[in-house]
Amino acid sequence: MTGNTHNLLWLQSGGCGGCTLSLLCAEAPDVVTAFETAEINLLWHPALSLETGREVTAIIDAILSGETRLDILCLEGSVMMGPNGTGRFHVMSGRDEPMKDVIAALAQRAAHVVAVGSCAAFGGITASGGNPGDAFGLAFDGEQQGGLLGGHFTGKAGLPVVNIPGCPVHPDWVTETLSQLSSGALSRDHLDALGRPDAISGRLVHHGCSRNEFYEYKASAEKLCQAGCMMENLGCKGTQAAGDCNTRAWNGSGSCISGGYPCIACTEPGFEDPGHPFVETPKIAGIPVGLPTDMPKAWFVALASLSKAATPSRLRENATSDRLRVSPVRRSKKGGKQ
Amino acid sequence: MSRLVVGPFNRVEGDLEVRLEVASDQVTRAEVVSPLYRGFEQMLRGKDPRDGLVIAPRICGICSVSPSVAAAEALAAAQGLSPAPNGQLVTNIVHAVENIADHLTHFYMFFMPDFTRETYGDAPWFAATATRFAALKGTAAQDMLPQRAEFMHIVGLLAGKWPHTMAVQPGGVTRWVAANEVQRLLGLLATFRRFLQRVAIGVELEAFTALGTRQALFELVETHGPSHSDLFRFLQISEALGLHQLGRAEDRFLSFGAYRQGSGHLFARGLRDRSGPQKLNTGLIAEDVSHAWMQGPERALHPFEGVTEPDTEMAQGYTWCKAPRLAGDPAEVGALARQVVAEHPLALDLVAQGGNVEARIVARFLEMALLVPAMERWLREIRPPDAFIAHGDTPPETEGAGLVEAARGALGHWLRVEGGKIANYQIIAPTTWNFSPRDAAGRPGPLETALVGASRRPGETEPVAVQHIVRSFDPCMVCTVH
């Protein structure tokens, strides 16, 4: 404990609130303990704080006047720019002012600005299907720099908007990033070109995937609730998406893939409009269009056809079964059962 | 007469503004404003019907499994598909975890902190309540959050993650469950049962659900004392403040039926008003846009014909929320409505003089206590060797409705497919019903009715009675407009 408390204000706009609800699932430590340890003083959170109505307006006004120091501003949900640039798809209640203007004014006062979740970072699901609400990220519109604050924005402490991606975020991504910020342990070097902390962007969802053996042999599931790799047919983007989802469990032991459905790359800008049904892999001449991000395509195709030819029958059978039906063979010294 | 605007109205899910007219320190008129529009119904048009299972659940981060289940049922109806029995059981369990977690979050994080306000500083129960239920800092949050997180392990195992799982599909679920996992899940459930019995409710679940009257409930509080459990503390406060006489709407309770079992539901589908059970005809549901910032025909439309076109000029109206009506009437939905429609004796007795704040809170505890034993049964009914999913195809021209119960009440998804794509997708969420604006006839929604008569205490700018009433509905504003 350093005795320096860090004032944090959390706002929500064009989102579902699911990142906060995910945050409440934090364990070892839980969110209350994590914030205490990081010496974070929550000025206000829309779902968790006592203050309502005028009490909230007073908190915000005190920040805008400089009376209260704002160390960290978190936004959850997209910035609603519509209709026609007015921002009136979300007028902050009790203020009669577009939320986008409140966010922009507060961002100028904040040492750090943090986008919590893919909506606040890039626009996210709220920007899907033609983006009827004109939903944008804080400093990005999809993968293009821009958004509400512009690509060159930096908080008063000098960092660009810190983007914690995900739909929703993993609770630890939030508690660890905020703890790094409050302890001064997050520098520009920790952020990738999309502003994401390297604890998230430095990994692929693929790492630690429980279906990796199927991936190695291109033993593919054809339908949901089959045991094989979901990359070839079911739209899985684990080999292209940032995240440690399969090395850091969700809700005790889970991940999308261990739940039996494909990674939809929710940590990546533009995931909301993949250009194909989410659970279908687009292919050209039978070859999936989306291959691992940094592997030469010709090598991938060559290795895939080689490994497919070498697929053990156990994997081939299990891949399209609705559970693991064939167990690994135990070799005995005498040769035993094959 | 004076006017009051209360906002941002927090500890609801999402943003909310309530506009009040007050005369002689009593609310005489209320308007409920849902200030956020995102446009999910517009986004879904033109998409592959299966994409609804990815996008629609992301309307809401607090009750995401409920739109999953509604979207899956709508698509199953459009496909003419029945889920695999194991798939239905797992869906029920995952859905029940979410609904219970939502009831806990509501009580501990959203509702109870209001009794720690200074205005109650002189009350004999204040000190203990402030220590226990102070927002985030109280001991209750420290006790409940780890329990809630571990309870969610059930969803982690069965459905990958929470919120925004894609495990729930029209024909069942995407993950098989092994025999050893059933045992592990029973253990997680046993841990949670212990928390409910020792800390939250204070008695055996079966003893609590066997209660038939409000009087019997208060005899328990009398016997054990208000410090015995978090529910009993609330009941002590409720009695002191008369919360059983606060926040009555029109007492027309609607439930679409929760947790499919065989050909019916664990909690029945139906409608009940002041004269008793009524026939429910979901074909008579229609949405009116007269007081919403929405364009559309003057007559109210059934959701299969529903239109969602925002009026970007915001020329007329006071909210983005449409006004759903059943045969022209507003309806109250939620845990209380579910238990009243299901004719649980305690729920019926609690509303003998009309719906109220206390009854809405107790109904959530009643539901948690009824659900945990049901989940134990569903887990034991899983047959690990059998299928967990059935597969179907969507005809190019088809339609289907998914009518389910979210934690906060009746949730409907109406899907129409043309040329293999989503032609129309209409959603009526629980809080759309409860926080509905006025309709063309000028008739207010349930909350707008329930607020009339609420008192303002001396010196208050945001009357605490208004806050109790609003939060007793456990509103989810992100669902309301979507």
Give structural notes:
The complex is a heterodimer of chains A (338) and B (482). Chain A has 338 residues and is α/β, with parallel strands linked by helices. Chain A has two domains: 195 residues, NADH:ubiquinone oxidoreductase-like, 20kDa subunit (Rossmann fold, 3-Layer(aba) Sandwich); 122 residues, Cytochrome-c3 hydrogenase, C-terminal domain (Cytochrome-c3 Hydrogenase, Chain A, domain 2). Chain A has ten helices and 13 strands. A five-stranded parallel sheet of chain A has the order 2-1-3-7-11, sandwiched between helices. Chain A has a two-stranded antiparallel ribbon with strand order 4-8. In chain A, strands 5-6 form a two-stranded antiparallel ribbon. The N and C termini of chain A lie far apart (60 Å). With 482 residues, chain B is of the alpha+beta class. Chain B has a single domain, classed as Cytochrome-c3 Hydrogenase, chain B. Chain B has 18 helices and 17 strands. In chain B, strands 1-2-3 form a three-stranded antiparallel sheet. In chain B, strand 7 and strand 8 form a beta hairpin. In chain B, helix 4 runs antiparallel to helix 14 and helix 6 packs antiparallel against helix 8. Chain B is globular and about 65 Å long. Chains A and B meet through helix 1, helix 3 and strand 5 of A and helix 1, helix 4, helix 6, helix 7 and strand 5 of B.
Short description:
Chain A has ten helices and 13 strands.
Write the layout of secondary structure elements.
The complex is a heterodimer of chains A (338) and B (482).
Chain A: E1 6-12, H1 18-23, H2 31-37, E2 40-44, H3 54-64, E3 70-76, E4 79-80, E5 91-92, E6 97-98, H4 99-107, E7 110-116, H5 118-122, E8 135-136, E9 140-141, E10 144-145, E11 162-164, H6 171-182, H7 198-201, H8 212-216, E12 283-284, E13 287-288, H9 297-309, H10 313-319
Helix pairs in contact in A: 2-6
Chain B: E1 2-6, E2 17-23, E3 26-33, H1 40-44, H2 52-55, H3 65-79, H4 85-111, H5 126-133, H6 139-151, H7 153-159, E4 168-169, E5 172-173, H8 179-200, H9 205-209, H10 214-224, H11 230-241, E6 253-255, E7 258-261, E8 264-267, E9 270-273, E10 276-278, E11 285-288, E12 294-295, E13 309-310, E14 323-326, H12 335-341, H13 345-350, H14 357-381, E15 398-406, E16 409-418, E17 421-428, H15 430-434, H16 446-451, H17 464-472, H18 477-481
Antiparallel strand pairs in B: 1-2, 2-3, 4-5, 6-9, 7-8, 9-10, 11-14, 12-13, 15-16, 16-17
